[in-house]
Amino acid sequence: MHADPIGVLTGRHFIDGDHACSEGAIAAGCRFAAGYPITPSTEVVERIAERFPKVGGIFIQMEDELASSIAIQGAVWGGKKAMTVTSGPGFSLMMEHIGFAAMTETPCVFVDVQRAGPSTGLPTMPAQGDMMQARWGSHGDYGIIALSPNSPQECFDLTIKAFNLAEQFRVPVMMMMDECVGHMIERVVIPAPEDIEIVPRRYYEGPKEEYRPYEPERDLVPLMVKAGEGYRMHVTGLTHDEQGYPNMSVSVQGKLVRRLVDKLKANAERIIEYKEDMVEGADVVVVTYGISSRTAVPAIEQARKEGLRVGHLRLITVWPFPERMIAEIAGRIKAFVVPELNFGQIALEVERCTAGKAGVYLVPHAGGTVHQPREIYTAIRKSVKG
Amino acid sequence: MSEELFEVEESVPPNPVEEFLRMDRMPHIWCPGCGIGTTVNCFVRALDASGLDLDKVAVVSGIGCTGRVAGYIRLDSFHTTHGRAIPFATGLKLANPELKVIVYSGDGDLTAIGGNHFIHAARRNIDMTVILLNNGIYGMTGGQVAPTTPISAVASTAPYGNFEDNFNLPYMAESCGAVYVARWTSFHVRHITKSIKEALAKKGFSFIEIVNPCPTLYSRRNKIGDGLDQMIFYRDNSEVRNGADTKTVGMDFQGKIVVGKFVDRERPTYDRAMMQYYQKKLGEDFVPSEEMRNAVHAENGN
After folding, report:
1. At A12, which CATH number?
2. Does residue A307 form part of some domain?
3. Same structural domain for residues A168 and A280?
4. Which of A89, A346, B38, B79 is exposed most, by the fewest CB atoms within 10 A?
5. Rounded Cα gap, residues B117 and B232, in angstroms
6. Considering only alpha carbons, which residue of chain A is nearest residue B55?
7. Do A54 and B286 touch (CB under 8 A)?
8. How far apart (Å, rounded) are the C-alpha atoms in residues B86 and A279?
C-alpha cells in the first residue's frame, strides 16, 4: 500500500529533525496525535497542530503525558494510526501506557526526543539516557521496537518505518531521537506518495461470531478489529485469554507473555536494520546509534589513517537488539568501542552478547553536548592495545 | 415411559438483560450487597430504551470494582489503566465520533488518580457519559481512604477516621463544564435508569454519580450494617431535589444525601467546536476527518 497523497509534501526541504518526524508521521498515515509540551520535542507537535487540520487529522494537547499516551490508544481502537511525542520527564510518565500498549497489542508510536537527565536535567541539551528505559521502563515482560535516527532525513524515513512496524507486529514503537538530531537542520527529501510503502492495519475479516481477538496468526500476531463494527470485543490490560477475557491462571499468563516476547524475537531478523562500514576484516568495531554515529566518524577516519583496522556498525534498530550479529562479530575482532551519551546502556548489551569473546570499551558521557571525536579516538587506540 | 411426559414447557421468560452481558463470564466478582450489579442492570435497561445502535456503543472503564463493568458488558468494551478511562475514551471518541462512549468507573479511579482527566474532559465538553459509582473508599484494594471518604469515616488507611474534606462531585462536574449532572443512590433504580437514558441522549460531557454501598469494606468497618441496611438508609435519608444548587449537595458521614438532576444545559462539544472553528478560520483548507464528516451528516439526517 502507498501513502495517501493528501499528507505528503513531496520535494526537497530544509527542515529540522523534529519537523521531519512530523512529516514522516503524516506520510505514514498518522491522523491522531496527542501530546503535552516538553522541550526539545515540542516542535514535532507544533507542526502537527498546524498541518493536521488540513489533512484530516486530529491533534489534541492533553493535560499531561499519561493522558496523551492513553488517548492515542483509544484513537487506535477507534481506527486511527496515532502517536504521542515527548522527552525524558514525559517519557517517564508514559511508561505505564507503553506496558498497556504492549499488553493489549495496540499499534502506536512513541517519539522520545532525548534530553539530559535524570529528572528535569538539561531540558535543551542532548543525551541518549532513555535507551534502557525504552526497553524495560514498564513493569513485566514484553517486547518493543526502538529506532534511532541520526539525521533529519532519517527522522522522516524512520517515523514511517516506526508506523509500519507498529502495524506489522502490533507493538508500541519508540522513535529514540535526541535533542541534536531533533534540532539539526538538513536537507530532507520527501518522495512521491507512490514511492512510500505503507503497512496497513491488519484487520480481521472473517465471520463475526468466530472472531477471537487474541488468537495469533502464524507470525504470532493477532488480527485487529476496531470499535463500532459489531464485534463486541473486550480489551483489557489484565492477563487475558485468546477471547480477550481476563484470566488469572498461571498457564494463560505464561502463554500470553511468552507470545508478547516471542513475536518480536521470532521476527527479529525482519525488524533489525543497521549500517556497517568496513566491519569485515576489522580489529576494532565502533558500535554507535543516533547522534553518536556522527561524532564517531572523524575518530574512525583518523584511526584508519594511522593504519588501524576499524569498522563502524551503526544500529538503526536498537531494540530488538542485534544480539546474534554482535556475538558473531565478537568472535573475530579484538574489541568493540561504544560511545553513547549516557554512562553505559547499549554498551551493556554489547558486553552481554560478546560474552567475553572480545573487549568492550565504553566511551561514556553525561550528556549536555556530544562527544569530542578525540574521546572516541582515544578509546579506539586503547582498545587495540587490549 | 415416554420422554414427552417429562418435557417441561419453558415458563421462565428470558432475562431481558442477558443479551447485554457477557454471560460466559458469569458469575461476576462483586460482593453480596454491593450495588454495582444493580446499576449495571439500570444501565443496560437505559441502553435498551435509548434506541441506540448497540454496535456503535463502547464502554470504557478504569481499574477497581466498578472498573470491572466493561468486562461484563457485551459491547465493545475497554478495561484500561488506573484513572485513565477518560483520556482513553477521549481518543476513542475523537477518532470515531459516531460512537456513543460511556465511561463507567469508581470514585477513586475517576476523581483521585484520574481527577485531572475528569476536570479537563468536562472543560473540553468531550461527548461522553461518565457513570461514577461512589462507595467512599477504594474497594478492590481493601477499603482505603479516598477523596470521597466523608469526615470521620474509618478506612483501612484512616484507622482513626478520615479528617480530610471530601469532594462534592456534582459541584466539581458543574463548575468544570459538564452539561448534565445528576446524583442518585443505588436504591433509586428507576431514577438511575431514567437519568442514564437522558444522559445518553445528551451531547457533551454528562455525569451521573451513584452513591453505592461497599458492605464488605466500608459499611462493616464503620458499623453501619450490611447491604440491606445501606439500602434502607438510602431510602430514608435521600432527599430528591432536582435543580438543587450543586454547592449545597456535599455529603457527610451518614448524613442526608441530596439526589436528583442538578444540571441540564447545552454547550458545544469539543469535536463540533473544533469543526466549526476550523471551518471558519481555515475555510476551504480545512479537511475534517472522514469519520467526523460522517457523524455530522448522520446527525443532520443527510
Report:
1. 3.40.50.970
2. yes
3. no
4. A89
5. 34
6. A230
7. yes
8. 51
Based on the domain organization, do B126 and B223 belong to the same domain?
yes
Q: CATH code at A319?
A: 3.40.50.920
Is pTM beyond 0.95? Reply is yes
The three three-digit cell numbers of residue B283, written as one number:
475555510
Q: Is residue B9 part of a domain?
A: no
Confidence of residue B3 (pLDDT cuts 50, 70, 90): low
Range of the domain at B277: 268-302
Whether residue A34 and residue B70 make contact (CB cut-off 8 A), yes or no, is: no
Q: What is the model's pLDDT at position A229?
A: 96
User: What is the sign of the dihedral through the CA atoms of A64, B202, B291 and B280?
Assistant: negative
Q: Is the pLDDT of residue A356 over 70?
A: yes
Q: Give Cβ neighbours of residue B124 (< 8 Å, ≥ 6 apart).
A: B90, B177, B205, B270
Q: Which position has the grid cell 536535567?
A: A121
The pLDDT tens digits of the residues spanning B241-299 come to: 999 999 999 999 999 999 999 999 999 999 999 999 999 999 999 999 999 999 888 88
Exposure of B226 by Cβ count < 10 A (0-12 exposed, 13-18 middle, 19+ buried)? Answer: middle
Cβ–Cβ below 8 Å for A71 and B91:
yes
Q: pLDDT tier at B14 (50, 70, 90 boundaries)?
A: confident
Q: If you average pLDDT over every residue of chain B, what do you get?
A: 95
Residues forming a β-bridge with A147: A175, A317
Do residue B164 and residue B275 come from a single domain? Answer: no
Q: Do A78 and B89 touch (CB under 8 A)?
A: no
Residues of chain B contacting residue A245, judged by C-beta atoms under 8 Å apart? 22, 24-25, 71
The 10 Å Cβ neighbour count of residue B18 is 12
Nearest CA in chain B to A66: B84
**And the C-alpha cell for B262?**
442538578
Residues of A in contact with B74 (CB under 8 A): 232
* Shared-domain flag, residues A187 and A289: no
Residue A300 domain boundaries: 274-385
CATH number of the CATH domain containing B165: 3.40.50.970
Residues of chain A positioned with their CB less than 8 A from the CB of B24: 245
Nine-digit cell string for B195? 437519568
Q: Are residues B233 and B167 in the same domain?
A: yes
C-alpha cell of B144? 482505603
pLDDT at A207: 94
* Tens digit of each residue's pLDDT (9 = 90 or more) over A6-20: 999 999 999 999 999
Q: In a mutagenesis test of the B interface, which of A232, A242, A243 is the best target, namely the one with the most B β-carbons within 10 Å?
A: A232
| B285·A226 Cβ contact <8 A | no
Give the residue on A whose Cα is nearest the Cα of B67: A236
A319: alpha, beta or left? (left if phi > 0; alpha if psi -120 to 50): beta
Task: With respect to residue A380, please indicate whether it lies within any of the assigned structural domains.
Answer: yes
**Number of folded domains in chain B?**
2
Q: What value, to the nearest 5°, has the Cα angle with vertex B254 and ends B253 and B260?
A: 100
Give the number of domains in chain A.
2
